[in-house]
Every structure is written in structure tokens, then in C-alpha cells.
Specification:
The protein has a single domain, classed as 2,3-Dihydroxybiphenyl 1,2-Dioxygenase, domain 1 (Roll). A hairpin with a 6-residue loop joins β3 and β4 (49-53). The protein has helices at residues 15-25, 73-82, and strands spanning 5-11, 30-34, 38-42, 49-53, 65-68, 86-93, 99-104, 110-115. With 119 residues, the chain is α+β, with helices and mostly antiparallel strands. 18% of the residues lie in helices and 39% in strands. Strands 2-3-4-1-5-8-7-6 form an eight-stranded mixed beta sheet, with helices on one face.
Length: 119
């Protein structure tokens, strides 16, 4: 897999309450999307980004990072299975339009591997 981007997924109790710290103070004032349970904020130059997550809408476990894999999502899923990694959320086309799965790394961290429609 060749990731095109890796984004931190920060747990927050309330996205609206946390927003101003990340937008006003850190300058991540471009809100690319907000699904109510996850919101993506980016700097104007696109070089810095973070996602605030209250609780994953479809996975039983929250992830610590999201890895954009483009059209390699299926291959990444097959490779994770081949290596015997625990799949905590199966390869799925989600209602909000991404194709993704969540895998547990050997260190215990859960990683969201995702392909967006625009990739």
C-alpha cells in the first residue's frame, strides 16, 4: 500500500466544543466535512490536518489514525488478512461514500484504511 495521507483521529466528547481550539488557535480553519461524529479540519495550505471523533458511527472500535489508500483499499484489506491482522470493521462502502476497513496493528492501535470517492 502507498498511503497518500495519514491523519490523526483525536477523541473528543463534543466536536462543537473542541472546534475553536483547532480552528482559531491552531489555524486549521478549513472544515472539509462534519458528519456529526467526525469532522475534518485542515490548514489553508493543506499541509496540516486533524479529525475530531466522538465515536465511530459504524465500527465497534475507534481508530487512532486514518490512512488514505485511494484505490488500493481492497489490496490493503487482502494483505491485512494474509498477514493475520485483526480486522475490527470489515471492508465496507459506508453511507457517507467512502470504502474502508479498520485493522488492529500488532501494537494494539486501530487504524482506519480508507479510499475516498475523489481519489
Amino acid at each position: 500500500m502507498r498511503p497518500t495521507e495519514i491523519i490523526a483521529n483525536l477523541p473528543v466528547a463534543d466536536i462543537d466544543a473542541a472546534r475553536s481550539f483547532y480552528t482559531d488557535y491552531l489555524g486549521l480553519d478549513q472544515e472539509l466535512f462534519n458528519l456529526g461524529w467526525v469532522a475534518h479540519f485542515r490548514s489553508p495550505d493543506g499541509r496540516a490536518a486533524v479529525q475530531l471523533v466522538t465515536s465511530d458511527a459504524t465500527s465497534p472500535v475507534d481508530s487512532v489514525i486514518s490512512v488514505r489508500a485511494g484505490d488500493e483499499v481492497d489490496a490493503a484489506f487482502e494483505e491485512a488478512q494474509r498477514r493475520g491482522y485483526e480486522i475490527v470493521h470489515p471492508l465496507t462502502v459506508e453511507a457517507w461514500g467512502v470504502r474502508r476497513f479498520l485493522v488492529r496493528a500488532p501494537d494494539g492501535n486501530v487504524v482506519n484504511i480508507v479510499g475516498h470517492k475523489d481519489e
